[in-house]
Amino acid sequence: MIKAITFDLDDTLWDIWPVVERAEILLHAWLTTRYPRIPERFTPLELRELSQEVIVACPEIAYDRTRLRKEALWLAARRVGYLEFDVESAFAVFFLARNAVEPFADVRPTLERLARHYMLASLSNGNADLRLIGLHDLFAFSLNAIDVGAAKPESLMFDRARQRLAVQPDQIVHVGDDPEHDVFGAAQAGFRTVWVNRTGRNWPGGLRADAEITTLVELEPVLTDWES
Sign of the C-alpha dihedral, residues 228, 141, 127, 101? Predict the structure, then answer.
């Protein structure tokens, strides 16, 4: 019997990249008024790409997207000669905009129905804040890579979720859009898997999900079939 469902967030419950790009533009504008040498030197995309330099220098923090953003901003500030830089305020501008997401229309109604029958949790490699987004009331708990110190597909997040749900792995269904992070990672942890393929992508190869859906509405019949 299925007792719990875990959900990825970004690109599963909402479209994230237009939101991130908008947040980067807003941050760029904020920097223009306070630290103008940074946007004179770096475009929004170039500021994002500095995170890759941070990962090369400090691979041990690669899972922490908040820290990567902050370290990238500090790197930009130093390169243009700022000895003092309010990184917390800068990141707050980005973070607030990054969480101004619009969940897909099927998300809240489906989660509300599922929450009547299953324990729900979210497992994300990103740093979304469900309180800011307005979906926190639907989940028993939420974990991200920062919380556990490792990103999917590593097993730690799935193991931590299983411990908190206090059920067997095969009683948990993980739902997500990423074949590697979500499907492979959850399957390795013993969870059942559902691939959310909203855009009609081809499966990239490797272990397939137990089910594939194009909207969350299709999840409910899958669960009913598995429990029949």
Answer: positive
How far apart, in whole angstroms, are the C-alpha atoms of residue 128 and residue 117? Answer: 25
Q: Degrees (nearest 5) of the Cα angle 22, 7, 19?
A: 5
pLDDT of residue 98: 98
The 10s digit of each residue's pLDDT in 130-170 is 999 999 999 999 999 999 999 999 999 999 999 999 999 99
Tell me the Cα Rg of the chain: 19
Give how far the C-alpha of residue 175 lies from the chain's centroid of Cα atoms, to the nearest Å.
Answer: 12
**Upstream peptide bond of 18 is cis (omega within 30 degrees of 0):** no
Residue with tokens 């940074």: 38
The tokens of 13 are what?
């419950």
Domain boundaries, the chain: 4-14+103-227, 17-98
Measured distance CA(179)–CA(196) in Å, rounded: 9
Cα distances (angstroms) measured from residue 82 to each of 5, 50, 76, 153: 47, 16, 9, 38
pLDDT surpasses 90 at 228:
no
In this structure, CATH architecture of domain 17-98: Up-down Bundle (1.20)
Domain 4-14+103-227 belongs to what topology? Answer: Rossmann fold (3.40.50)
- Find tokens 């990184």 and name the residue: 87
Q: Rounded distance, CA 7 to CA 102, Å?
A: 16
Find, among 3, 87, 104, 106, the residue nearest to 38 by Cα: 87
